[in-house]
Amino acid sequence: MFYSNTVFKLAHSSMSASTITGIVGVVNFLATFGGMALLGVAGRKPILLYTTAALAVVNGVVGYALF
After folding, report:
1. Which of 12, 15, 20 is nearest to 4 (CA)?
2. Which of 12, 15, 37, 57 has the smallest set of CB atoms within 10 Å of its CB?
C-alpha cells in the first residue's frame, strides 16, 4: 500500500490514484474477515495444502507461458 498511489498514477487510469488506493484498502480489509471465517471453518492445514497446490499450478502455467 505504500507505493500504490505511485503505481496507479503511472497506470494512467481514468480514476484518481487515491480513489483506487482506497478501494484496494477496503477490499483488503473485507477480505481479511472472509479469510478468518474460512480459516475457522476449514482449518489451517487444508487451506495450506490447497493454496500450495494452486500456487504450484499457477507457477507452472506462468513458467510455461514465459518459456
Report:
1. 20
2. 12
CA-wise closest residue to 34 among 24, 42, 46, 23:
42
> In Å, how far are 12, 20, 21, 45, 47 from 51, measured between CA atoms?
33, 27, 26, 10, 6
- Check: CB of residue 44 under 8 Å from CB of residue 31: no
pLDDT tens string, the chain, 67 residues long: the values are: 788 889 999 998 899 999 999 999 999 999 999 999 999 999 999 999 999 999 999 999 999 999 8
Helix (H) or strand (E) holding 16: none
pTM, rounded to two decimals:
0.68
- How many domains is the chain built from? 1
